[in-house]
Amino acid sequence: MSARRGHLIDLSPLRSSPAFARMWIGSTLAGIGGQLTIVTVMLHVFALTQNTFAVSMIAVAGLVPMILAGLYGGMLADAFDRRRVALIAATITFASTALLAALTWTGMETIWWLYVLSMINSAANSVGMATRTAIVPRLIPRDKLAAASALNGVAFGLTVMAGPALAGLLVAITGYGWTYTIDVVLMLSMFLGLWTLPPLRPEGAVVRPGLASLVDGWRFLRKAGNIRMQYIIDIIAMTFGQPLVLFPALGTVLLGGGALTTGILTAAVAVGTFASSLFSGRVVQYRWHGRGIARAVQAYGASILLFGLVLLIGAFSAPASETVPHVALIVAACVALALSGASDNVSSIYRNTMMQAAVPDAMRGRLQGLFIVVVAGGPRVGALYAGTLATLTTLWFPPLLGGVLVIALVAMLARRNRRFHDYDAENPEP
Question: Whole-prediction pTM value?
């Protein structure tokens, strides 16, 4: 029994910090709603255009606002009460989602409205995520940070597992308006989690937002080789190994099943994330986080390569349709995507813990802002890579090539950077 408990997730951060528990619950429920909207917007744009490149442009359109908001939001989190900054970001996300629902219900939505509101959501979410992540080390002790990261993996798994599957189901049954409206309702839980937090001003020397604050953060990052390396590795993984933008076309053209397949494929990633977090007891005890990141990301690349091979088989199989899907290939694709979600989550546990433990509090907002830009911006660059390459070639080629590139590039970087390879969580150094 004790060995089994050792493999299961550590729930002690929820018990030891009620404030963290409330924020975790609120973020999880709001995250489910956010995933509803993300997948629904993708389906909505594809329904309006029948074009995978147009779907990929949703992510690209939000990239620049998200980068600017992440950088500036990090400066805000290092200068003002982090609770207040997070509440303002949540309010903007709530308002933009409510407007999206209203436009859809009145029949006034256009592809340009979908792009603009997605850009606003990306920017506000970037500020909110950076600020909430910078708050966590103030709520729990350092030796619980890895366990808290695993709990966030459970939350992410639940949101991406439930949200996309519900989105595909709701769009198929009720349409787009109800799906956006449910997100509006779920967003209310975020306010409860944030409103009950105590004031959380940054500790240490405060630099007001602006060029001086940005330069100060850049100087720190230049000296922080371990933090830089994890950014680079994550960018590689998300640029070449992020096939999400292909899912609407796969459900319509290659695998069949329509919107429901799109939701199932997206949820499969979250199944792997959830399962790896649920059995993360041993993972959070591993102290060599640098090599843990490198090995997990290489496993991620191998999973994406496997996904590409499944699609290659599908390309030479009998044609599929929304009513006649390739069930066996959908199952095989889900297995590959679940493995990618599990390996990415292990990497995320180590990356988040390194960020929160090795970076001082006065600098944490700015570095978290940049971290969110990397984590959220990488998939958007990946969407452009996959969408463009699929348009020029075929649907199975981007993940097949991308998986090979991820494995090779990460192996080369890990071999050349021994300091990152030997990073010790018991003696964190940026």
Answer: 0.75
- CB-CB contact of 235 with 385 (8 Å): no
Q: Which amino acid is at 90?
A: A
Rounded Cα distance between 226 and 320, Å, is 47
State mean pLDDT over 376-387.
78
At the second CATH level, the architecture of 8-193+206-421 is Up-down Bundle (1.20)
Backbone angles phi, psi at 365, to 5 degrees: -60, -45
List the Cα angle 354/31/144 in 5-degree steps: 30
> Cβ neighbours of residue 286 under 8 Å, at least 6 residues apart?
292, 350, 425
Residue 426 has what pLDDT?
Answer: 79
Q: Which residues contact 300 (CB under 8 A, 6 or more apart)?
A: 237, 241, 340, 343, 344, 347, 406
Structure tokens at 34: 């956010």
Written as one letter, the residue type at 185 is: V
Q: What residue spans define the domains of the chain?
A: 8-193+206-421
Tens digit of each residue's pLDDT (9 = 90 or more) over 141-198:
888 888 888 888 888 777 777 777 788 788 888 888 888 888 888 888 888 888 888 8
